Task: inverse folding
């Protein structure tokens, strides 16, 4: 507790009033009071976008980047309880406190509200596919759901749902004494303010465990604006979190059978109230926008205390009722009345980070950051890394820090290198954040000399010798006789001896050279309280015998050495330990890097002694082998490189599905990097051809089903062992789901292929059996002889399957 005098208390109270006065909290917005840098007008513009005022009115600021698109109502009856839907339509804020959905029936009598809500419910249920029966949840791990909810970042927007014994054991003591001279009045005032959160108490009345888990697994399908982002949950994790949030209550909602007369009445209400202005629904279009607010009386209509005001445009002379606070109404009014200005890049970025709640986890300059009330829920597995190991990195100078392609990987592909951090980077959807990379790039610039590193092309013999010296210096500096970076950073998948920090070999792909140079010289300037030391304090090299103690040359040597990628020899101090992983009576899965499955390899060992590898980076079955499972190269903690413990049948690493212009169009191939050309010419290759990995789930036999997308085609991929006529085979079943019929090409086989029959193709070591399909067998090269087998697939609307069999052949 604070030990303060009356004078200090007055200072804190004054600071408290100042913090309150400077903040505008949006309806249902978990942005922390006083934590964003926005003016009243800017906050009002975000409110206008979030409340979708432009759906019905002209004369309002257009902020399409931040527009909160309402949930898609197609199939809403399969997701939401009909009882909740009915009560929500009668009074949204009662059924779901904090919702941004206005009460469009507020001007009606109670009997009219009930009648309209009933007919709308019947209408919406009639537009939906039948809700599938609720699956039994007894085996779902609710404790896992509790732990996930309170660790991966949900708390940043929703707050802790409940406190379990030990859940907040962070080693911190919030009751403390300090001298009044040490008290920062603003920080102390902030402790008096609780962060606003988006409540979840309505979930048990709204969803079943199954329907909520489906939403959590792919929230952007229903809420495309990204205000509820994708937290990269697997299906099993989604079920666990849903079971925890819904709780032990069983669904009491009796499936509603829509009545024809109520369906027709609901259809008319949906059209007359212009619900399609906000909610997408097949067969309906929004009515033309009317009623400018630029000259309107803002004390009436939607912003008035009474929704029965005469100033309205879409509901027969009656306005919808928003649950707005006085400061929110003031902010909206100020934004409408303000002269139109083009926001600066700095202001636009601040609005973006506030609108999408980025500042609930990240700090940018002097705003944002994890709130004190949520700090204990941000955890990591590497305690020695301090806050670096558990708090998401600051966004200050982010545009100068990250390579543009890597930033896009983080924002749009969910790429992550902080394996030790429990908090996950949410995925908001490419459409919603596509403006951010350029914004960061324009705002954040670090001037400095270019890295002077050897070029792999057109080198003289003298330059080759210098290159060897630079390479040796970089290796020495990283090793245990130099700056000992490998003591705290993994290297090429091999675990460090002390802490398991970010793998050093990702540096060249992730970071920009100028930022790298500055950061090595003074890490604390970029991330206060970091445990990262420097070997160049005040720009002076600590190791004077390496490259003559020249700071710039030493850092350039490290940068060059890391640019060699996986071809770089391990620095001194890296210790590799090999372990053989065996398979017993149950399936075994191992994830890690591999020469047969790339950087995101997944090895699956089956009890039948058939094994395969899946490349999650490209979505392809990349190798098959019989006998012993894998050898793993690791050291202590973490997952290291794996490779087959017996000879494997190597398959292609490229994406397996693509849309080709015609049967002669070349297949989009995975870029190949070499020591001479270490830079990836197409780092977004999988994304650029429409591929996205969605994780996997396990059945009762622990066999994984991989989930991924190719364009808008959803694919599930499962491979099991079977025995047929005494021969062991792998049976692979691809399950497709699409909302529209489409044609895609599947690259089923690559190698020295011979066609045995219409359905059988083989190489020296593998026989592939396919269903009756339209095929193309195309030549890739003559020396060595390489062909590719393509299947032209006509995918129907809905769900369909494709089955293949792989039989290893004894030489």
Result:
């Amino acid at each position: 507790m604070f030990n303060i005098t009356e004078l200090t208390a007055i200072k804190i109270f004054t600071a408290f009033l100042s913090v309150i006065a400077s903040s505008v909290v949006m309806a249902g917005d978990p942005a922390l009071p006083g934590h964003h840098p926005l003016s009243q007008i800017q906050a009002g513009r975000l409110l206008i976008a979030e409340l979708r005022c432009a759906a019905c009115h002209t004369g309002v600021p257009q902020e399409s980047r931040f527009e909160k698109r309402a949930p898609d109502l197609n199939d809403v009856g399969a997701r939401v309880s009909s009882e909740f839907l009915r009560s929500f339509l009668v009074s949204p804020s009662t059924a779901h406190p904090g919702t941004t959905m206005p009460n469009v029936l507020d001007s009606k009598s109670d009997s009219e509200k009930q009648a309209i809500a009933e007919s709308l419910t019947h209408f919406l249920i009639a537009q939906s596919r039948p809700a599938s029966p609720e699956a039994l949840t007894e085996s779902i791990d609710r404790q896992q759901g509790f732990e996930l909810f309170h660790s991966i970042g949900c708390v940043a927007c929703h707050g802790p749902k409940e406190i379990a014994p030990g859940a907040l054991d962070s080693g911190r003591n919030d009751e403390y004494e300090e001298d009044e001279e040490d008290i920062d009045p603003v920080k102390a005032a902030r402790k008096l303010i609780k962060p606003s959160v988006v409540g979840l108490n309505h979930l048990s009345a709204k969803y079943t465990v199954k329907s909520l888990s489906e939403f959590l697994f792919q929230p952007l399908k229903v809420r495309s604006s990204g205000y509820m982002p994708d937290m990269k949950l697997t299906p099993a994790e989604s079920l666990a979190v849903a079971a925890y949030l819904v709780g032990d209550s069983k669904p009491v909602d009796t499936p509603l059978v829509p009545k024809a007369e109520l369906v027709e009445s609901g259809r008319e209400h949906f059209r007359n109230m212009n619900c399609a202005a906000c909610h997408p629904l097949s067969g309906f279009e929004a009515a033309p926008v009317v009623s400018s607010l630029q000259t309107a009386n803002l004390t009436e209509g939607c912003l008035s205390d009474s929704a029965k005001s005469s100033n309205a445009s879409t509901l027969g002379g009656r306005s919808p009722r928003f649950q707005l606070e006085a400061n929110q109404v003031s902010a909206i009014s100020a934004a409408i009345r303000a002269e139109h200005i083009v926001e600066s890049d700095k202001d636009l970025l601040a609005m973006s980070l506030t609108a999408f709640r980025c500042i609930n986890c990240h700090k940018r300059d002097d705003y944002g950051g994890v709130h004190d009330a949520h700090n204990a829920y941000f955890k990591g597995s590497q305690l020695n890394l301090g806050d670096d190991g558990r708090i998401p990195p600051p966004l200050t100078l982010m545009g100068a820090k990250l390579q543009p392609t890597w930033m896009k990987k983080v924002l749009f592909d969910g790429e992550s290198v902080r394996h030790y951090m429990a908090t996950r980077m949410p995925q908001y959807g490419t459409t919603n954040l596509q403006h951010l990379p350029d914004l960061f790039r324009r705002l954040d610039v670090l001037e400095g000399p270019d890295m002077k590193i050897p070029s792999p092309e057109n080198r003289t013999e003298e330059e080759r010798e210098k290159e060897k010296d630079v390479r040796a210096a970089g290796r020495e500096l990283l090793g245990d006789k130099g700056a000992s970076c490998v003591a705290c950073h993994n290297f090429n998948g091999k675990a460090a001896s002390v802490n398991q920090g970010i793998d050093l070999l990702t540096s060249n792909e992730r970071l920009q050279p100028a930022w790298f140079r500055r950061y090595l010289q003074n890490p604390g300037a970029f991330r206060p309280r970091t445990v990262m030391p420097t070997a160049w304090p005040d720009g002076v090299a600590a190791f004077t015998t390496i490259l003559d103690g020249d700071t710039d040359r030493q850092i350039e040597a490290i940068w060059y050495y890391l640019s060699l990628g996986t071809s770089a020899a391990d620095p001194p101090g890296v210790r590799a330990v090999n372990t053989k992983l065996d398979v017993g009576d149950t399936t075994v899965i191992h994830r890690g890097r591999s020469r047969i499955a790339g950087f995101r390899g997944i090895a699956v060992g089956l009890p039948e002694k058939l094994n395969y590898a899946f490349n999650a980076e490209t979505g392809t079955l990349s190798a098959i082998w019989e006998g012993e499972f894998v050898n793993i190269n690791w050291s202590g903690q973490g997952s290291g490189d794996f490779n087959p413990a017996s000879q494997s049948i190597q398959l292609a690493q490229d994406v397996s599905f693509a849309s080709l212009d015609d049967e002669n169009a070349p297949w989009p191939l995975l870029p190949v990097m070499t020591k001479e050309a270490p830079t990836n010419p197409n780092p977004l290759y999988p994304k650029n051809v429409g591929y996205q990995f969605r994780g996997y789930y396990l059945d009762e036999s622990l066999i994984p089903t991989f989930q991924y997308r190719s364009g808008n085609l959803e694919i599930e991929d499962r491979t099991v062992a079977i025995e047929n006529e005494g021969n062991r085979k792998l049976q692979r079943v691809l399950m497709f789901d699409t909302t529209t019929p489409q044609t895609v090409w599947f690259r089923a086989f690559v190698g020295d292929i011979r066609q045995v029959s219409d359905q059988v193709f083989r190489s020296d070591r593998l026989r592939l059996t396919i269903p009756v399909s339209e095929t193309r067998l195309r030549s890739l090269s003559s020396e060595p002889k390489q062909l590719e087998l393509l299947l032209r697939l006509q995918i129907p609307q809905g769900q369909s399957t494709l089955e293949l069999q792989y039989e290893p052949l004894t030489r």
The two ends are 76 Å apart (CA to CA). The mean pLDDT is 85. Residues 191 and 372 are 7 Å apart (CA to CA).
